[in-house]
Structure formats: structure tokens, C-alpha cells
Amino acid sequence: MNLQIALLLGQDGIVNGAIYALLALALVLVFAVTRVIYIPQGEFVSYGALTLAAFQTGRTPGTLWFLLAAGAVVAAIDIVIAVRAGALGRIGRIVLWNLALPAIVAGLVFWLESDKLPLAIQVVLTLAIVVPLGPMVYRLAFQPVAEASVLVLLIVSVAVHTAMVGLGLLFFGAEGSRTPPFSEAQFQLGGLVVNGQTLWVLGASAVLIVALYVFFERTLYGKALRATAINRVGARLMGISSTMAGKLSFTLAAGIGAFSGILIAPITTIYYDTGFLIGLKGFVAGIIGGLASYPLAAAGAILVGLLESFSSFWASAFKEVIVFTLIIPVLLWRSLTSHHVEEEE
Amino acid sequence: MRTKTLFAALLSAGAVSLAHADITVGVTVSATGPAASLGIPEKNTVALMPATIGGEKVNYIVLDDGSDTTTAVKNVRKLTSEDKVDIILGSSTTPVSLAMIDPVAEAQTPMISMAAGAAIVEPVDAKKHWVFKTPQNDLQMATAIVEHMNNHGIKSVAFIGFADAYGEGWWQQFSKVAEARKIKVVANERYARTDTSVTGQVLKMMSANPDAVLVAGAGTPSALPQKALKEKGYKGVMYQTHGVANNDFLRVCGKDCEGTYLPAGPVLVAAQLPDSNPVKKSALEYINKYEKAHGPGSVSTFGAHGWDSGVLLAHAAPVALKKAKPGTKEFRAALRDALEGLKEVYGAHGVFSMSPTDHLGLDQRARVMVKIENGKWVLQK
Amino acid sequence: MRQRLPLLVFLALLVLGPAILPEFYITLLNYIGLYAIVTLGLVLLTGVGGLMSFGQAAFVGLGAYTTAYLSTAHAVSPWLALLVGLAITAVVALFLGFLTLRLSGHYLPLGTIAWGISLYFLFGNLDFLGGHTGLTSIPVLGLFGYELNTGREFYYLIWAVLLAAVLATQSLLDSREGRAIRALKGGSLMAESMGVNTARSKTVIFLIAALFACVSGWLYAHLQRFVNPTPFGLHIGIEYLFMAVVGGVVHVWGAIVGAGVITVLKQWLQDLLPRLLGQSGNFEAIVFGILMIFVLQRMRDGIWPLLLRLVPVKAARRREIAQAEPLPQRQLPAIGTLLLEVKGASKHFGGLIANNNMDLTVKAGEVMALIGPNGAGKSTMFNCISGVDPVTSGEVRFLGERVDHLRSREIARRGMGRTFQHVRLLPTMSVLENVALGAHLRGSKGVLAASLHLERAEEARLLAEARRQLERVGLGDCLFDEAGSLPLGQQRVLEIARALCVDPCLLLLDEPAAGLRYMEKQALADLLRKLRGEGMGILLVEHDMDFVMGLADRVVVMEFGEKISEGLPEEVQRDPVVLEAYLGGVE
Q1: C103–A332: do the CB atoms touch at under 8 Å?
Q2: pLDDT confidence of A342, banded at 50, 70, 90?
Q3: What is the pTM of this model?
Q4: Measured between CB atoms, which of C104, C110, C292 is closest to A284?
Q5: Alpha-carbon distance values, A60 to A64, A128, A206, B12, B252 (Å)
Q6: How far is B230 from chain A (nearest CA, A)?
Q7: Minimal CA–CA distance to A328: which of B139, C305, C429, C110?
Q8: Does C286 touch chain A (CB under 8 A)?
């Protein structure tokens, strides 16, 4: 190995790490607020990338039907509940979010010829389809069991993952897709060729992380989420609905997932089942951060990315063996340093 | 309760249709899981297979094994014990097909695999007595590549394959042939189907500076190493395996795959074959049928392996029908014997001539070299 | 006898099964059995012990690959290969357990994912194990010279193994070691204070779960006669956890229910969906996922508890406690002997000083009360003394021996029993068993004896002791109630009985009278006086001043982590510093 190769591997590791970092942030957020270990996070990556790819080949993405169907089911359930509770005033909002908005998105998709649109509009349409799926998934799968144990929530999460991967196969087929890069530019950087898309990934990740930071520090909703993460009961007493917090965190997670997918689709091929492994690496990073610390999770993500890229150079057949074996001492170290006396219930 | 009655009604409906059926064909393919890109076209192809053979109605029972050996064995046991099938077609990958050998031999039911590994049918022993397969052996394809390399002055090659049975099978066959034919293999790398980056492997291969690189993968995932190589400025010759031969690969790989060579079954370039080639007609028949059902450009060579298993069945069943009634042990044995006795049967991938020691029966007519030019598969003469 | 009826019916059905069921049902039952063996391990590990593992499939792989390799490459007898497999699994499990069981919280499940994936890829990359392609021609299993060729023959072996495992697990859980294992879920702090070596208990269940998985893998290899890595990957590992939760993760029989329901459901979907929705799509996974979400939403404790309700026979709550020879008792030190001496003890949490330079003594046959306003550091002092959270500096002597750096279970062994300010008990366990946990150190029979129920004599003595202590504290009427169903005040009293079961000479009671009614307080005070009369030393933290002053021989008052006064109750009550602390603190 020479310096040139080391630099290239480092670059590769950091780019992958940036994506893992985004997913890790989403996972930490979802866990902190709802205690759900969100295995389907990866599916949003695939859905995002493959929905965009479908637009570019002029097909109607299957996720659109999913959105319409899920919206209809959520609306039906919530309207029944609202009618039973006599809270008819809620119905307007339920219809708006779960029926009207998906219908508008569907109308736009059919009206516009999606393959001729500029990339930016396609991206917006993609996000408009995939992101609302987040809160709908929360409403349908997790809200009814919100108070259950972490183990039950995890198993529900696995079930959602199974269903979403199955749907992904149905919507997009077994073969993968790529999308054209946001920028074709290439830069020379001290003997290192850097692609425009690489910079896009790094830049967008950084912007997103800063945006999340501002969201959590400066906005009311962000603070509400943080409060819920720290003390669920306390937050509820302060009038922060845990349902609202759950939906909001799932919306953010879906947005981060879909956007990550859109970011990496130009540099790699995305399949209906790509999400699981990417999500898993994000999960690893999140755990290194103790599912609590955002900066540590991001650092963990970069570490995982670098480990992967260097081990694929040294012994590619044993890549996962190396990555996951080396994770264990890191976990040990984290576990010992973050020693905590048992909480009083 | 309602679901129970519905279930019972459906079961009895199934039972009624079975009672009228004459030949029952069990199919297990990997329509989900990692090998779904193989299993789905195979599953689609089953729908195109003949509805009657030798005047007898044929019932197809298609099951998905999710690329999982346990499920496949469960499927085989279900098909043989519950549905009393006369023959089993499948499955899509080598490990899954290997796992099925024991249960089919136990049930004395012939099986035609759609997976490439030579170990599925070689050597023909007491158990593999019952097992046939349609895809060309990896060895046959690897030899084609090595010959092509020899003819084009390539002295060193780097290998990158799937970290699964496909990549492993290719590595074993290819490294053997390459060594025998004096081509130096300078790197042996692996990557997973859903990996998002192969930069490490690509840099390793490039640092060995090979004349050519062979990518052993199936479907669109094979594009990743090639695109990464091009991006890092690799200028050597690129080879792929017949596993990539579908149009999705061309769509994903785009201009980065221009000039790539690969061995393939003739079905991939059927229209370009000379009319004198006996495979042309049978291959085009399949392509037309498939594309009529699933749209132009949708055909893949994997589906064609499934088709060939149907072709073998269609030729063997009439012979067996003369000896015994379907649904009996005797019929299954007769069907097996008939399969082994097939000679000069034209399929989509070549001409099958079976023998007691050869349960594949393909010859040199089952492979052609293809080059990707202008985003199309072009037959090399 | 009536309670055993469902079990006997089940056994009869199992035995008759192969005679009446069609071939394919036997196949399914075989797989259900194999899965249930692994899931059973997970019930023990995850459901009972609270340790989540995604990696069980890797242990299944170890068992399967060991026998596959040895019996094909070296023609070793499968039975010998089983022993080798168990040995290898035990070594690997002990090593992995050593590494990962010390991981706390969420690090543990991730640790299991990590080695689960590593082992999976290792199977796929080792040439002598057949790589990703796998190993074929694994020989048929022979039993007493008889070959298990068909699924029907194999069926009996699988279910015999499974039933043996279920019964052994049940026996284990219903024993001294089992109580220690069940106590893990309540947090290691309480269990350690009762003398349980929680690290050992964790290792034990991890090992048992791994060995079960290994046996399942061994059976799998010889049933399938082919192995490759796919059945041992992370996805399958998650699926085992899935089965456990769907069946009912804290119930031993839930393992069989979970494995059964999931296997049969998948089979139904495979049969049913193509008929409903056509052959073209692959809807099984989708419908399966959605159904499972629905099932978990309706029954988050799994299916087994629901089935239990359908069975007409009430589960045996009450049972006989055999008359047993009382356990040997510690010779209490003579009244007036110095039991506990705390000198210059300080405890810092980062910059926060919780205790500063505390001095304290307790003698045999006296009640020493530690009082002070909220946040004065009394409970911290308790934790320092009992070894739960050791002192930063200073010394703690118990019976003349320095104990400040001993673990809490070592201190308990020396004769110190304690209760907790916030009640720590296992709410779903019976009152009797909760208290019997206190007697953990007074038994010695191990896991193997417990699994085979060879320790019934000792167990009877332990339970009799627990009952004796419960009767002593006035809870003799609710031995078989769930501990969590008691009112809070009585739960505190239960903790006293549990502490007494330790057979202590020094009792540390943290607010024992809180939540008790007047009459109950009187009874408690009488009990404590009686204990004192027998020569027990009692260190008491309490806010009820009437209670304290009527009972205590000496009083120490703390404020802001320091001792501000010490003396006889009436002296302390008159001490202006104390009055200032209690009354003057109000601004």
C-alpha cells in the first residue's frame, strides 16, 4: 500500500461513513424518542433511491401506491377513532395529511412527465412520496404498542422490515438501479481525484447534521423531541404528546433515510434489499454512540466506513469478519467507559 | 372461523384440480432473497411452459424457497409427499440445489436444477442418479473465457467475484483453467451483492496491474466493480460471466461496460445466430414467448435455463407416458430414464444429449462469446 | 393430577403423531422441533435472563458444521461429533460470553450481532467447510444400530431432545440457581446484594442457550444431510428471537408455540396466497410481516399466556412446602460485639461529594438509626457499607474485617442483609420465591443438579426457611401471591424477610416503615425489637421520627453528606444543630 492508495481508501471510507452517520443519527433519534430499534430505516434508503430511479426511467414508482394505500388505512383508522371519541374536528387534519396530500402527490406524478423533469423536481417528488411513509408506519405499526418493552418494539420493527423488503421486491424487482450524479465535475486535490458526487455526499451530510443540530437546539419541536428523549413521562406532563414526538421522529428518520438513498444512488447500485446492511452499519455507529450521543455516533460511523474500506483492500473475502470482529473491542471500551449505576425504576 | 372455511374451500378446490391432473410438476425457485434476480424470471417462465404434454394435462405447483436451503428442502418434501409430483424443477442456485439432492433421491423423484455448479450432477452416483441440470457448467464457461484470453494476448488477470457460492464456484473453475493455460491470476477478490463500495478491492487489483479483469457476479451487482474500475482509470480488458446476461445489467452499467466480453448461452444473441445454427429457432421461440408476456427486452438467460428444464420435460414425458401412468413410482422412474435417454434436444441454451454419466448433456454449441457494443449484446465470431 | 392433564394429552398426541399424520406434517413438526430447541435457549437467555441475543444461529452453525465436517471428512461417528460440537460450542460461548456479557445495555445485542455475522462469514470462507457452497453427503444418524433414515424416525429423536430440554429448563428455573437467573432481569444490584454471582448466572444461561442451539444444529445437519452457511446467518438469528417473542418470551412452552406458529403460518401463506393473489407476485413476506405486526399489537406477551387462559385448569399457584429440616444458622456474635465500623468514609460522584468523612458503628444487639433530611447521603452510605457502590476513601470494617472493596455478594456472605429504599423485587415471581432468593448463599447445589431436580431436599429446606421468615414478618398468608400484587408497604416488609433469609448478623433497613399503617408499624417495631433481643445488629434509615425514637438505641444525624450529631435519641432530639437542620433549613 502506498500513500495514494491509503488516501483513496480513506476518501472511500469517509464517504460511506458519512452515509452511515446520517443513518446513525436517524436511528439514535428514533430510539431516544420512541425506544424503537428501527431496523426498517435501511428500507427508506432503498425506497428513496429506487423511487428516484423509477422517475428517471419514466415509470410510476410502486411506492406511490404504497403511500396512497397506507394513507387510506391510517385515515380510516383515525377517522373511526375520532368519530367514536366525538372529536369530529380532528377529521379535517386527518384527511389532509393522509388522503389529500398523497392524492396531490399522485396527481402531480401522473400529470407531469416525470422522466423529463429536472433532477431537483424529481428529488422533491421522491421525498414527497417516501417521507410521509415514515409517520404512517409509526401510526400503523408502532403507535398501538408504544408502551411495550424494547424487545417487543424490536420484534415489531423486524416485522415491518420483512414486510417493507417484500414490498420493495414487488415494487422495484430484484435488479438494482443507479441514478445520474448531481454533478459530473471532477476535482484534482493533491494527486487525488475527487468526484463532484463525493463532495455532494459529504457536503449534504454535513449540512443535514448541522440542520438537525439547529433543529434540536433552536426550535420548539426540536426541544420537544429532546425533552421526550430525556424523560417521556415528564414530557407528557408538560403537554408534549408522545404520539406527536413519535411521528415527528419517524418523519425525520424517513427523510434522512430517503435523502441518504438519493445521495448514494449515483455512486453505487441500490437494490430492494440494500437497506438492511447499510442500516446495520448505521446501527453499529449509533450503538458506539450509546444510542444517545450524536457526535459519538457520527465518529463511530466514520470509523465503520474506514474499517470497511481498508479491510476490503487487505482481505476482501473476510471484510465483514474483520469489521464486526474489530467492533467488539470498541463496544467493550464504550461499555466500560460509559459505566452507569443501575437506574432506579 | 370464516377464514377457516375459506381456507378449506381453497384446499378442496386445489384437491379437485389435482384429481383431474395427469402430470404434476413441482417447481421451487428462489423468487425472493439474494437470488431473486435469478428466481423471478424462472418463475415467470414456468407460466409459459406447455399446458399439455403428450395429450396429458400438466399441473405446475410453484413454490418460493427464498434462496434458503432449509426452505427448499421443506418445499421438496412437501411436493413429493403432499402433491406427489412426478418431477421437480429447480432451484436457482448451486447450494440450494445441492441441498435438494438427498430428499429427491429419497423420494425417487427426478429433478432438473437451474443452477450452474457441476457438483449438482457430477459424478452421477446413486443419489445424483435422479438429478439433472440445464445451465452450462462454470468450467465450460471459464474455459471459453480463458481461450478468448489466450487468443487476445492476455497474460495476467485479476479476479473479483461474489462472496457467495457463485463467486466461489467461478474462482475454483477459472483459477484451475487459467493456470493450465498459462495465464497468471494476480488477484482474487470478493464482494457482497449489496455492497455499496468496492474501492478497496479495485485498488488492490489495479496495484497488481493485470491485463484483464474478470468479474464473476450475477445481474446488476456485477456492474459495481466494473464501474469502479473505470472510474479509477483502469484501461485493461474487462470480462464478465454469463450471470450478467440481462438487460438490467446494460441499463445500470451503461457506457462503462462498452467493450466487455463474456461467454453466454446462445439465447442471449439468438437473433444474431446464423440460421444454420440449430439453437436459433428454439431460443427465439422462448424469447418471443417471454417478451410477449413481460414486454420487450425483459428476457434473461436465467429464465431460459428454466425454459430448458421445461423443454427436457416435454421431450421426456411422452416417452415415459408409454411405460406408466403419472402419479406413480413407475412413472417417475420412467421419466428419469427418459431424461437420461434424451438425445439432440434443442433448448434455448444449446443442444442436450444426456447419458448415464452426463446429466447436463450440453456441448460446445451451448456457449458463444459476446461483446457489449453500443449498449447491445454482440455475438463474436 | 388434573394439572398434568394438558401435558399428558400433548405427550400422547406427540407419540401418536407419526402414526396418524401425513408425511409432510411430520416434516413440519421436525423443523418446528429444531427451531423450538434454539428458541428455548432464547427464552432462557432473553425472556428470563433479559439478555438479548441475535447470534444464536451461529451456534446452530457450530453444531451443524462440526458434525458435517467430522462425519464427512474424517468418518467420525455423529455421536462423537456431537460431543466435539458441544465442546467447541462451549469453548466459543465461554469466550464470546467473556467478551460480550460484560457489555451493558444495548452494547450486548450489538455484540451478539457482531460475532453472529463474523461466524457466518467465517463458515462461508473456510474451504474445508465447503465455503459458501456447502458440504454434502452427511451420513445418516444411527441409534443402537438402527438407521434414522426417514423423517418419521427422526421425529422421535428431535422431540425427545426437545422435551428433555424443556423439562430440564423448567426444573432449572424452579430451583435456587433458577431464582438467581430469574433475578437477573430485576437488575444485578439486588441479586448481588443477595449473594448471587450475576456474572456467573449470565454465563450459565448464555452457555445453556448456546449448547441447545448446538444440539439443534447437529440434528439439523443429519436431518438435512447438507449444510451451507445460509441457515446460520443474522436473518435466521433474528427469526429465532421472533419465534421466542411471538410464542411468549418468558414462557418455556412459548418456545414451542412460537416455533410452531411461525413455521405453520409461513406454510399456510405459501399455500394460500398464490391461490388468492395469483402466482405472479411474492406476497408471502409482505403478508407475513403485516400479520406479525398485528399479532404483536394484540398480544404483546406472546401467544402462550393466551393459550394458558384457554386451558380449564388453573395453573398451580399454591403448592405444598414439605416439612424440612431447618437450615443451619449462623452463631450470632455476643451482644455488644462491634459489628460494623465505618471510619472516615467519603464517597464522590465526579465533583459531587455525597458522603464526607463519615464515622459510624453498629454493635450486636442494638438498633442504630441514621437520620437526616432528604438528600443527606443516607442511602449512599448504605450502598457504601453493603458494597453496592464502594467508598472513594476511608474504611468499612465488618466483624473486624475490611470490606470496603469487597463485592456486595461477598459482604452478604459474611452476614449482612439489606433492604432497599426503592423496593427491588421481582414483581411476577411469588412472594415465597422472592424471599427464598435471600437464602441463595445457604444452598450449594449447582445447575446440573437443578436441571435434573436432584436438589429437592435442599430446595425444600430453602423454601421452608423462606416461609419461616415470611411468617415471622407477618406475610405468612400470601406466600404464593405475585410479589408485585402486594401493597407497597408490604413489599418493604417482604424485603425484610428476604434480608433475614440471608441469615445476617447485621441488618441494613432503608426506610422499612414507609407506607405501613399504624398497626403494621407496631408489628414491625416489635419484630425489630425481638431481633435485637436475639443479638442482631440493625442499622436503620427512617423518616418516621416516632418510629425511630421509640426504637433506636443510638442515632446518627446526617446533613449534606456529613455527620452533624450522634447520640441517644433524646440527646439528638435536643441538639440545636439537628433542630436547625430539620427546621431551619426551610426558608
Answers
A1: yes
A2: very low
A3: 0.90
A4: C110
A5: 7, 14, 32, 39, 18
A6: 13
A7: C110
A8: yes
- Nearby residues of B176 by Cβ (< 8 Å), 6 or more positions away: B139, B142
By C-alpha distance, the chain A residue nearest B250 is: A177
Which residues of chain B fall below pLDDT 70? Answer: 1-21
Strands, E assignment, chain A = 186-189, 192-195
Does residue B123 have a cis bond before it (omega within 30 degrees)?
Answer: yes
B7·C22 Cβ contact <8 A: no
| Cβ pairs bridging B and C (under 8 Å) | 101
Rounded CA-CA distance A231/C331 in Å is: 49
Q: Which CATH class is domain C26-310?
A: mainly alpha
Contact yes or no for A176 and B231 at CB 8 A = no
- A264: cell is 448514494
Assess B148–C contact: CB distance below 8 Å, yes or no. Answer: no
Return the exposure string of B35-63: e unless at least 16 CB atoms fall within 10 Å of the residue's CB, then b. bbbbbbbbbbbbebbeeebbeeebbbbbb
> Which residues of chain B does C282 touch, with a Cβ-Cβ cutoff of 8 Å?
31-32, 36, 40, 64
Query: Are A335 and C103 within 8 A, CB to CB?
Result: yes
Identical fold between C26-310 and C333-415+504-587: no
Q: C352: which strand partners?
A: C349
* Residue appearing with cell numbers 448471587: C196
DSSP designation for C44: I
pLDDT band at A344 (very low <50, low <70, confident <90, very high): very low
Contacts of C136 in chain B (CB under 8 A): 98, 101, 119
| Count of CB pairs separated by less than 8 Å, A with C | 133
Residue ranges of A 1-40 with Cβ closer than 8 A to chain C: 37
Q: Which chain B residues touch A if contact means CB-CB below 8 Å?
A: 32, 34, 36-37, 39-40, 160, 163, 189-201, 203-204, 207, 219-221, 223-224, 231-232, 246, 248-249, 251-252
- Paired strand residues for C559: C562
CB of A345 less than 8 A from some CB of C: yes
- DSSP letter string, B276-309: T-HHHHHHHHHHHHHHHHH-TT--BHHHHHHHHH
Name all domains of chain B by residue range, CATH numbers in brackets. 2-136+287-363 (3.40.50.2300), 138-264 (3.40.50.2300)
Please state whether B350 falls in left (phi above 0), alpha (psi between -120 and 50) or beta.
left
- Model confidence at A343, pLDDT cuts 50, 70, 90, reads very low
Q: Which of C425, C401, C424 is nearest to C413 (CA)?
A: C401
Q: Which residue has the cell 419484630?
A: C527
Three-state SS for C231-251 is HHCHHHHHHHHHHHHHHCCCC
Which of 45-104 (A) contact B at CB < 8 A?
57
Each residue's pLDDT tens digit, A214-224: 888 888 888 88
Q: Do B95 and C276 touch (CB under 8 A)?
A: no
Of C121, C187, C296, the CB nearest to A155: C296
Residues in chain B closer than 8 A to A7 (CB atoms): none
Whether C361 contacts C399, CB under 8 Å: no
Domain limits, chain C: 26-310, 333-415+504-587, 424-503
- Alpha helices (H) in chain A, listed in sequence order: 3-34, 41-56, 62-85, 91-95, 101-111, 119-130, 133-137, 150-172, 196-218, 220-230, 232-237, 242-264, 275-288, 294-314, 319-337
Cell of B189: 477478490
CATH 3.30.565.10 corresponds to the domain C333-415+504-587: no
Task: Report the percent of chain A where pLDDT is more than 90.
Answer: 43
Q: What is the pLDDT of residues C503-521, one digit of tens each?
A: 999 999 998 988 888 888 8
ipTM of the complex: 0.90
- Rounded mean pLDDT, A131-146: 94
Inter-chain touch C293–A158, beta carbons under 8 Å: no
